[in-house]
Structure formats: structure tokens, C-alpha cells
Specification:
The chain is mainly beta. Helices cover 3% and strands 47% of the residues.
């Protein structure tokens, strides 16, 4: 009896006595489900605006019509699924929940991009309201397609040698510019600035333009007028590959001659010498076989004479040495003058260039007044003094 009495006390301790009903047990830790009370007798869901055939990658705006006779606004669960492609949420399923009423929902469906063959896709809708359920489905044929490019060359009226110039291809589909298409330019002759080779890949911008720069300063463009063929291969995902060509003429531009001379002088064991380092260019490129005549008022060049003709090498350079051979040593300074003339005049002329060199005498003038000196850069020429003595005549007595 004592054992049973203990059990009875435990059971009684877990009960709460309701004065109105001593046999009702309340459990505060249990959440009872909320029951939606609806008087709906039917629901309907209908898919529409779905074509029977679409191109792959295209977008379709779907309509989903829901109808019911519910009067209490119970919650409706509506879900759409597709066997191929995605909805506007980038998923193959999209769902909605709303209070029951007659309404139409609009959803965007994107057909898949195909690479092998056409397919059939199924789009289905399912609506649930309490115990009521309705479904609808549509099938759409997805056709694998490729798009066509149009390409327009945009070139300059004239291209000149020794210049860098742009060439542009615009890629469109009808009037719509195509962004992100890869344009592979290729040159028959010459090089592109971007790659320093005869080919380069440029992606079209948001306006459909791809521009590459061609360097026409190569040796092959220096003297001859040239017709050059340029090709471009246009590629982009889901587009047919496009090959287009054009021909441009590179004409001879006015070449600008320029000559710089580094004139240096020195002594070798007390024997004066001078060196002429000549650099000749045509519009910045080496000028090959430019001819110069150098004349000195004394001394000798490498040919043993006081004048010499020289030509520039493949780098546009030539170096000439002069020595004071044949000039006797005197007490006074001796000034040697040089002139340099460009004798190649087919590209224009340049002014004669003059230089001088002073050979010090054995008895240089010293302690001259400062007013008679001209500095180290020029020799001092001393003129003889003329003494005028007045003649005095005596008057006869």
C-alpha cells in the first residue's frame, strides 16, 4: 500500500485542478497548431503567355492566374518549377505566399543556353489552400540557335609612314552594339603597338568598338608606298564566328632630316686632335648613307688631306678624326676652323655647321690687361701697337 500511495502522489503532483473541470490537464510547454478556417470549395491555377517554341537564352514573361471562392483570406502557397532554364531568382523553382484572393502573378523565365541540340522544357505551377490543391503545366520547345555579327571597319583617310595610327572595328547585331566580343586583328605587314607582333586581341567595349594601334615606323614602311591587308576574326559565345578583311594604303610621309654632331678635342702626347661624331636621322629613324663634307683650314683627316667625305652607317652614325699633322708650331696661337656640310639633299638641307680649335703657341702672351682677354672659349688675337710721334719743326729766325 505504501508503494502505490507514493505513485499516486507523483501523479497528483503533475496535475493542475481546474475548478470548473477537475479532469482537464493543462500543458504550458505544448504549442497547438493554429487551424485556418476556410469556406473555400475550389481553387484554380492557370499558366499563360508561354510560347510553344523559344530560342535558347531568351526571356519569357509568364502569367500565373489564381482564383478561389475563399472569403476569409487564408494563406495560399504557390510554387513554380521548370525542368530546364531558371526563373528570375536564378533558380529552377520560385515560390510565393499570399492571402487568398483572385490575382495574377507575373514571373520571368529564362530559357537555357544550348550547345548540342534542341530540348523540351516543362514549366509547372502548384497552388495549395488548406486541403485544396490545383496544378497546371506547359511544355515549351527550346531551339538551339547562333547569332550573327555585323562588323564595320573604321579607318583613317590616310596612313603615313613613320607614324602610329588606330584602326577600329565596330561589332553589332542589327543596330545593337555587341559588348565583350573578342576581335582578333592580324596584319599582313607590320606590328601592333599593343602586342609588338603582327596580331593582337581586343575586346569590344559597351558601344561595340575594338581599336588597335599599328606602328608604321618599321623599316619596311620607310621608303615605299605599301598596300596592307588587315583581317579580323570576331568571336563571342553563342555567336557565329565572323571573318572580315580590309585593305589600307600606307603612303610616304615627308621625312624630316636631323643631324647632331658631337665635336670633341684633346691632345695625344702634346699633339692636338679633334673628333667629329655625327648622328643623322630621318623622322627619328637612322639615316643610312647620309653624306657629309668636312673641311679644315689646316691639319689632316684620316685620308691624309684637309677635307674628307664620309657616309653614315646602318645606325645613321659616322665618326671622323682630325689631327694637327702638317701644322708648324709657332710662338703665337694658331686657330684651325672647320666646316661640316650635308651633301645628301634629297630630303632637304641643313645649315652649315662650324667649329674651331686653338693650338697654343710656344710663347703665349702673359699678364695682359683683363680688358684684352676673351676667356678660354676663344683665342686671343693681339694687334700690333702703332706709336705716332709728332714731328716738331723749328721756326727759322
Amino acid at each position: 500500500m505504501r508503494f502505490r500511495w507514493i505513485i499516486l502522489l507523483v501523479v497528483i503532483g503533475s496535475l493542475s485542478i481546474n475548478p470548473s473541470n477537475a479532469f482537464v490537464i493543462e500543458r504550458s510547454d505544448v504549442n497547438l497548431p493554429q487551424i485556418n478556417i476556410t469556406n473555400a470549395t475550389y481553387i484554380s491555377v492557370v499558366l499563360s503567355n508561354i510560347p510553344t517554341e523559344v530560342d535558347d537564352g531568351s526571356a519569357v514573361n509568364i502569367s500565373v492566374a489564381f482564383t478561389t471562392d475563399d472569403l476569409n483570406g487564408s494563406l495560399v502557397d504557390l510554387a513554380l518549377e521548370t525542368t530546364a532554364g531558371t526563373f528570375e531568382n536564378n533558380q529552377s523553382m520560385i515560390s510565393f505566399q499570399f492571402a487568398a484572393e483572385n490575382k495574377t502573378i507575373f514571373v520571368t523565365w529564362y530559357a537555357p543556353i544550348l550547345y548540342e541540340q534542341d530540348i523540351d522544357a516543362t514549366i509547372s505551377a502548384r497552388a495549395v489552400l488548406d486541403e485544396l490543391e490545383d496544378t497546371d503545366s506547359k511544355q515549351v520547345h527550346v531551339k538551339m540557335i547562333f547569332f550573327d555579327f555585323e562588323a564595320t571597319w573604321i579607318t583613317l583617310d590616310k596612313y603615313y609612314q613613320n607614324k602610329t595610327a588606330p584602326i577600329t572595328l565596330r561589332v553589332t547585331q542589327g543596330s545593337k552594339p555587341i559588348e565583350g566580343a573578342m576581335v582578333g586583328f592580324a596584319l599582313e605587314v607590320g606590328k601592333f603597338v599593343e602586342s609588338k607582333t603582327d596580331s593582337v586581341n581586343i575586346e569590344t567595349n559597351s558601344s561595340g568598338y575594338a581599336t588597335a594601334f599599328i606602328d608604321f615606323s618599321g623599316q619596311e614602311f620607310l621608303f615605299e608606298e605599301t598596300n596592307i591587308e588587315i583581317s579580323a576574326v570576331v568571336t563571342k559565345l553563342k555567336f557565329n564566328e565572323l571573318l572580315v578583311n580590309t585593305t589600307i594604303t600606307v603612303i610616304k610621309s615627308a621625312l624630316i632630316p636631323m643631324v647632331t654632331i658631337d665635336f670633341s678635342k684633346g691632345e695625344d702626347n702634346g699633339h692636338p686632335f679633334a673628333i667629329f661624331a655625327i648622328n643623322a636621322t630621318l623622322s627619328g629613324r637612322p639615316w643610312i648613307n647620309a653624306t657629309f663634307k668636312i673641311v679644315a683650314t689646316g691639319g689632316t683627316f684620316e685620308n691624309g688631306e684637309s677635307q674628307i667625305f664620309v657616309k653614315t652607317n646602318a645606325s645613321g652614325l659616322v665618326t671622323v678624326k682630325w689631327t694637327a699633322d702638317g701644322i708648324p708650331q709657332t710662338k703665337d696661337d694658331i686657330v684651325v676652323f672647320f666646316t661640316v656640310d650635308l651633301t645628301s639633299i634629297e630630303y632637304g638641307t641643313i645649315d652649315q655647321m662650324s667649329y674651331n680649335l686653338t693650338i697654343a703657341g710656344t710663347n703665349p702672351v702673359q699678364n695682359l690687361p683683363s680688358s684684352l682677354t676673351t676667356g678660354n672659349s676663344a683665342p686671343l688675337f693681339v694687334l700690333p701697337w702703332i706709336l705716332v710721334v709728332p714731328q716738331i719743326r723749328r721756326r727759322k729766325k
